[in-house]
Each structure stands twice: as C-alpha cells, then as structure tokens.
Amino acid sequence: MNLQDIVENLGLSDVNQLKTVNISGLNTLADANQSEISFLDNKKYLKDLESTKAAAVLIKEEFASLVPKSTLALITDEPYLKLALASEIFAPSLIEEYGKDPIIGENTVIMPNVYLGKNVTIGKDSTIMAGSYISDNVIIGSDTIVHPNVVVYRDCKIGNSCIIHAGTIIGSDGFGFAHTKKGEHVKIYQNGNVLIEDNVEIGSNTTIDRAVFGSTIIKNGVKLDNQVQIAHNCVLGEHTIITAQVGLSGSSILGRNVVMGGQSATAGHLEIAPFTTIAARGGVTKSITEGGKTWAGFPLFEHRPWLKLQGKIAKLLK
Amino acid sequence: MNLQDIVENLGLSDVNQLKTVNISGLNTLADANQSEISFLDNKKYLKDLESTKAAAVLIKEEFASLVPKSTLALITDEPYLKLALASEIFAPSLIEEYGKDPIIGENTVIMPNVYLGKNVTIGKDSTIMAGSYISDNVIIGSDTIVHPNVVVYRDCKIGNSCIIHAGTIIGSDGFGFAHTKKGEHVKIYQNGNVLIEDNVEIGSNTTIDRAVFGSTIIKNGVKLDNQVQIAHNCVLGEHTIITAQVGLSGSSILGRNVVMGGQSATAGHLEIAPFTTIAARGGVTKSITEGGKTWAGFPLFEHRPWLKLQGKIAKLLK
Amino acid sequence: MNLQDIVENLGLSDVNQLKTVNISGLNTLADANQSEISFLDNKKYLKDLESTKAAAVLIKEEFASLVPKSTLALITDEPYLKLALASEIFAPSLIEEYGKDPIIGENTVIMPNVYLGKNVTIGKDSTIMAGSYISDNVIIGSDTIVHPNVVVYRDCKIGNSCIIHAGTIIGSDGFGFAHTKKGEHVKIYQNGNVLIEDNVEIGSNTTIDRAVFGSTIIKNGVKLDNQVQIAHNCVLGEHTIITAQVGLSGSSILGRNVVMGGQSATAGHLEIAPFTTIAARGGVTKSITEGGKTWAGFPLFEHRPWLKLQGKIAKLLK
To answer: Which residue from B83, B278, C167, C316 could staple onto B39, CB 3.0 to 4.6 Å apart?
Structure first.
C-alpha cells in the first residue's frame, strides 16, 4: 500500500513531502526495513531510532528531530494507537480464497475431519489426526505427529520429528492493544507467525501466540508440557524444558537448556541465560544474565537463599 | 412443573397447604420471582429472605418463621442438597430434538465440520471456523469471528464484532455441588447461560462457565487472554482486561476497566471497583471498594506497600 | 520381543547369559513381572530392587551385585537413558490399522464428526458429542456424557455416569524424558493409560496424562474443575475435589475426599492423606500423612499458623 494512502487512512494531517514508496508492513525500529513503517512509543527505544531503516516512523512531535534523514516522521500524539490502526491495514485474510492445494509427502496420513487450508505443505511420514485445523500457508515437516483437535493458525511453521498433543493452539493472536483516552482497547493485529523447529514436543491444551511482527520461535529440541502459555515474540532456546501451567509473557527470550518448573512465569521483555533453572512457582521479573544457576520464589531469589529465607520467615511464628 | 410434584420428588414430607402454582425454575432469594423456588443455606443471605418473592424456599426449620407470608417454607435439614436435586428437574436437554434450523445472516461464512444446533441465529459478516460447535438456542452477532474448535454451549449469546480464539469453551457447567453426609457430591445443574456483549476478544483455550442461575456476563469491550478461567456468575465490566492464566472464582463482579495481571486470581463472591489494577499473581480475597488503585501479592496489599514489604522480607536474610 | 534383541537394540555389550524369555514391556522395580524389564536410576528405589520380579534390570555396575538371582542385570552407565530407548520399542501404534468396529450400547447417541477408533466399546444411554475423538481400545460406560471436542487417547477407560466437558484431553503423554550428556532430551514413551471410574465430572479444557507404566487413576465420584492438569501416574481418591487451574505433578497420590483450592499444586511423588484440604494457591511439596487438616501457602503451613504468619509478615511494614 502507498504511504500516502496509509497516512490519510490514519488521519495524520501534519505530514508533508510524502514519499511514494510502497509499504509492505509494520515492524520495530530495530527490525524495520525500507518498506516498513515503525513507531516510537516508549523512550526506552530511543536508542533504536537513530539507526532505524524504516520508511517512516509514527512518533510524537517532541522526538521528531531525532528521526534519521532517510526516514519520514509521521507525527501524532498517539503513536501506539496509530500503530494499532495501521496494523489492521496489513492484517492478512482470515481465510485465503485462492491458493494451491496442499502438498502432502509420501506415507503421510491425513485423518478424517482435518481442515487443510491453501498452500499447505506437509512432509513425509507425518500424521495429522482427526479434527485438526491446518490453516493457510502452514508448513509441517516430516515424521511429525499432530494429535487430534490441534489448531495451527495461518503462516506458522512446524519442523521435523515434532509431536503436538491434542487441543494445542499454535499461532493464535498475541494479546496486544492500544488504548484510547476513553479507556477502550484497539487491537494491534498480530501479523507475525510461530516457527517451531525440529524435535519439539508440545503437550496438550498448550497455547503459543503468533508474533506481532516477526516470529515467536521454539527452537530445536524444546519440550513443553500441558497448559503452557507462550505469549507473542517469545524465543525458546534449544532443549529448553517448560513444565505444566507455566506462563511466559511477551518477548521472553530464553537461552538453551533453560528449565522452568510448574506454574512458574516470566514478566515480559526479558532474557534468561542458558542452563538457568527456575523452580516451581518462580516468577522472573528481570533478565537473568548469568547462566547455570537455580532460582526460586516471587520475588525471585537464588534457590539456596530462597530456602534460607523461607526458614527465617517461618521463625516469625515463634 | 407443579410444586406438589417437585416436593414429592425431593422427598419432603413436612409440607402442608401446597400451592398449586406452576414452578418454572430455581433462583437466589434476591432474584427469584413468583414462579421460582429458592433456598437458604448460608445465614449470610438471611437479609434476602424477608424480601424474597420466591414461590417457595428450601429452608431449615429454625429459620422457617422468617419466611414471608407469600412464600411457602419447604422445610429440610439439607436445603443445599435438596436444591441440587431440584436443579436436575429443571435442567434443559443436552441436545434439543426439535427446533428451527439456523438463521444465518448475509455474507456469514460457516466452514466445514461446524455443528449448528436448533434455533441458532448468527448475524451477518461473521465467520464460524471449522470444528466449532454452536449449540441449541445460541445467538451470535454480526462481524464476529469464531476461530476453529471453539465450543459454545446451549443458550449462550455472543455479540457483534467479537473475536473468539481457537479451543475456547463458552458455557460449560459451573463447578457446583452439594455434599451428602457420606462425602459424596451431588451436581447442582447449571441452568443459566453466558452473555458476551460486543467488541469482546477472547484468547485461545480460555473457559467461561455458564451461570447456575441467570448469566455469567462479559461486557462490552472486554479483552481476555489465553487460558483464562471465568467461573459461574462472574460479571466483567466494560473494557476490563484479563491476561493469561488468570482464574476468577464464582460470582466475582469486576467493574469497568479492571486490569488483572498474569496468573492473578479472585476468591468468589466479591467485587472489584472500576479502574482497579491487580498485578501479576495478585490474589484477591476480599472486595475492593475504592477504584483506581493497584494491588499486588497474596495476601493482597496495595502495590507500593507490597514492594516495600518485599524489601523488608529480603532483609531477613541478613 | 526377545530380551536378546532388546539388549542388542540398546547397544548394551556387557551382558552374558541372556535368557530367551519374551519381554512384554517395562515397569517399575516394584510392579514389574517376570516378563518385564525394569531400571534403577535413583538410589531411593534400592529398597525395591531386592524384591523385584523383573526379568531384567537396567542398572549401573556399582549396584549390579544387589540384583536378585532370578533377575538379569543389564549394566549401563545411563540406565534412565536406556529405559527411554527401550520405551520406544514397546510403544503401541499411534493408530491401529486392524481391529473390531465400535460396539455401541442401546440409546447411546454418537453425534456427527466424532472419530471412533478400533475396538471401542461404549455402554448404553451415553452421548458422545460432535468433534470428539475416541481412540483405539477406549471403553466408555453407560449414562456418560462426552461433550464436544474432547479427546480420549488410546487404551483409556471412562466409567458410568461421568460427564466430561468440552475440550478436555484424557490420556495425552506424560511429560517424561531422559537426558543425554549433550543436554538433549530423549522421550520416555508413555505406554500406560488413564482409568476414570464412575460418577466423575471433569470440567472444560482439563488435561489428564496417561501413565508411563500402569495407570493414572481417577476414582469414583471425583470432581475436577476447568483447566486442571493431572500428570502421569497420579491417583485421585474417591470424592476428591480439584478446583480450577490446579496442577498435580507426576505420581501425586491423593486419598479420598481431598479438596484442592484454585491454582494450588503438588510436587511429584508424594501422598496426601484423606480428607485433607489445601487452600487456594497452596503448594504441597511433601507428603501429608495425617488426614483431615487444612493447609495453605507455599511453603505449606497448616491453615491457622499460615494466617498468623501472614499477620506477622504484614507487621514488618511497621
């Protein structure tokens, strides 16, 4: 879509000298390319502004002077709300009307009552069990088992030798909204996807949300238990283990071989170093930069001090 | 059903002068009308007894004298157990045998493998995706998307411009049982429904239980994330936001623009004032009457004192 | 399969004098019979070694001398990893190719889009609602309701007068892996099943994992709410009540009439005495041997001391 059209669509009036560049989508300041629009809502990302390659940036007037010369400033009081409105422009269809019939590899079994969308590709020796929904443009590898009543939303990718247990939902929308001054919430369309690499096993009734931009990524060898919640834009490193009822908030970046105990959780936008263990119920609210340690509690402590602290707390009873 | 028949069915022998009134169902003391039976099990509701309009009340002998003249006292040692038995009498059919074919609005898409019950009405420009189950008497508005493998139980209502993500269950039975002296649990049939107003988005694998009497209500503009649990008879005010893995116990009444962080929860039968924020993992056990504040922890504190308290607790380690 | 073949398959070279016994499967030291292979990985189970009836035991060299005479020691540095590899040998087919057509009792209703596997038996007056998946060898009793989009994995059994709400998954794989020295996880195939007795009600989107060996057991009269997670090899005693979002870790053994409040949880391999109540959010990490008490918190305390402790903690603020 033409930038001029987008700007008019968003009701932005202060813009001059619009480039006639064709816009392909939205992205973060750090990841946007020259055909994408970005936004600055949180000052924390000012550092990404000067090096952005975005065609244009939704931005408050006070920061407009910091926008690089090759990028156009789209000035607005509410950059995040305008981003939400723009996200709808680039949202793909719910169901593709046109496209190729599925390509199914040798010895792959598609059971009854499976829905396969347009442009679906499935490798060989895989099984898609009854009641599953494989949406448009989904790619599934070889030797992979998709148990009954699994739903894979459009554009997601599942690798080889994966097992996805029943009732699991892959690629539902991340939970993202801009807010109006009246307290209403405006959907930020989640135009990214989920990428699941090889040898991943996912339990039953787990949910993995698609990215708002880019991909939510589950790397090689990861094992997820039942009723795990992975929010948009998380990245799970190789061989990471997540037990039942764990919740990862948006943009949690876990290194390889992280272990998270039952009902533990992360706040969003943080990193956990490789080989970290979070005990059951641990609540991670800040990045863990040094790997190989075990943590517990909420607020989070290293495991041994946490145990000691619980002893001290119990003594209050005396 | 005739009151005489119900009383005999429940094995109540002490009743005289039965009215021949036709009984249409069960309800609370406060909400029962002149064709409904109510019950008094918890003294907390004695205040509702004197003003009840119920045709009859299941009640212990000691409170029988407090029953208003226009209401008949059905005396029993176990009013709650008798309520459970009576609830089965009024439980509607699991599947209606007779009824009208679905009425589907213009441009609405019903994908393959969707089950539509009797007397279903769906507005225009909506999409019901494959594998979803829309039970008898369900009404769905216009511009609404029901993603794959969603289940909507009988008698529930979903408004306009809603998005229901995959695997979500709307209207399953609330968790309510009376208990016998032997420790067995007798089901209280959940004869209410779920009402979802307009502009509501619900994440994947969320569960919203139907009311025991009346309705579980999700008001205009509410946004629910994945794996949220809403128990029977909750009411969620306009534009309230509930993030992933939150659990609301029965009859939690949330005002408008309440925000509940990940894995937070409420105990039942309480109210949360408008514009309240509950931080992640917060556990609300009492009503919050003053709006606009932020709370955290379990037991619950205001957010700043909670942070301070965590600092004090951490000092115990030294 | 012949023991000689299994040993070669696992790459075990130190074994002499192999018995020609036919091996039917794997089991724990305590439960293995003379045609099963067992393993010793954790010293905690040394007490079970001397009385084991297993045909052979995967074991480290240092403990080999403790193996009873009638049992063959299969010596390996990594008994748990070899167990994982052996578990795949005994894993049944994902989908049976051959077998009998379903046997359906009188007045039982099978709705559209239900998948019934081979050798399925369903009693009379039951209802299997649309979109449910009843896998091979599953037995379902009489007067039982399976709501839409439920999945029952192979070999599981559901009794009479049960209600299984929508989206619930019964018999998905327990979460069990052995680990290589490189940090990869090797699946322990879960070759057991789930047994659900009579009068059990299970909420929506709950998950109950099959046992690794033997059965996960839900006894008569148990009531489970929505989004409950029951891991492999749990046993829930008669009339136990588990409310929403509770997580039971593997091999949690609950006595009769246990009550677990919302979002409470257990660590694995422990027992809870009959008539125990765990308050909401309680975290049980050790066995509770004396019944009839109420517990709360994490770490867990008896309920009254826990309340008192919370009072003491709150005083730290002053």
So the answer is: B83
pTM, to two decimals: 0.97
Report percent pLDDT > 90 for chain B. 92
Residue A206 CB-density burial (10 A; 0-12 exposed, 13-18 middle, 19+ buried): buried
Reported residue count of chain A is 318
Going by C-alpha positions, the residue among B143, B98, B90 that lies closest to residue B117 is B98
Cβ-proximal residues to B42 (8 Å cutoff; 6+ apart), any chain: none
Yes or no, beta carbons of C166 and B183 under 8 Å apart:
no
Cis peptide before A305 (omega within 30 of 0): no
Highest mean pLDDT among B187-201, C8-22, C41-55, C59-73: B187-201
- Helix axes B303-315 and C303-315, enclosed angle (nearest 10): 100
- CATH number at C3-89: 3.40.1390.10
Map residue C57 onto helix, strand or coil: strand
Which pLDDT does position A4 carry in this prediction?
82
What are the backbone angles phi and psi of residue B169, rounded to the nearest 5°? -120, 120
- Report the residue of chain A nearest C281, measured CA to CA: A281
* Res. A13: pLDDT tops 70: no
Across the interface, of A115, A151, A247, the residue whose CB is closest to B245 is: A247
Distances (CA, A) of B153 to A54, B138, B195: 47, 8, 11
- The rounded distance, in Å, linking the Cα atoms of C314 and A110 is 59
**Which of B147, B179, B232, B269 is labelled catalytic?**
B232
Q: Is B303 a catalytic residue?
A: no
Residue A17: its pLDDT value, please? Answer: 60
The CA distance from C204 to B153, in Å, is 11
A227 touching B (Cβ < 8 Å): yes
Token pair, residue A190, equals 């989640």
Tokens in use for B307?
């942070």
3-state SS, residue A285: coil
Is the ipTM value over 0.90, yes or no?
yes
CATH architecture of C103-250: 3 Solenoid (2.160)
Which strand ranges, in their side-by-side order, compose the sheet holding C72-75?
C25-26, C36-39, C56-59, C72-75
- Residue of A172, A194, A286 to mutate, interface with B, max B Cβ within 10 Å: A172
Q: Which residues pair with A247 in a beta bridge?
A: A229, A265
Instruction: Judge contact between A279 and A264, C-beta under 8 A.
Output: yes
Query: For domain A103-306, which architecture applies?
Result: 3 Solenoid (2.160)
Closest to B163 measured CA to CA, from B216, B225, B215: B225
Secondary structure of C90-146 in HEC code, one letter for each residue: CCCCCCCCCCCCCEECCCCEECCCCEECCCCEECCCCEECCCCEECCCCEECCCCEE
* SS percent in chain B: helix, strand, coil, step 5: 15, 30, 60
Contact C285, A281 (CB under 8 A): no
Q: How far apart are CA A186 and CA B197, in angstroms?
A: 16
In order, the DSSP letters of A137-151 are T-EE-SS-EE-TT-E
Domain parsing of chain A, residue ranges: 3-89, 103-306
Residue A268 Cα distances to A46, A175, B127, B246, C243, angstroms = 19, 12, 32, 16, 28
Q: How far is CA C223 from the centre of its chain?
A: 17
Give dist(CA C185, CA C178) in Å, integer: 6
CA closest to B314 among chain A residues: A309
If you search the block for the tokens 């029901």, which residue do you land on?
Answer: B146
A169-182 residues labelled b (16+ CB within 10 A) or e (exposed) = bbbbbbbbbbbeee
What are phi and psi for residue C266, nearest 5 degrees?
-125, 150
Are residues C244 and B309, on separate chains, in Cβ contact within 8 Å?
no
Q: Does B119 touch chain C (CB under 8 A)?
A: no
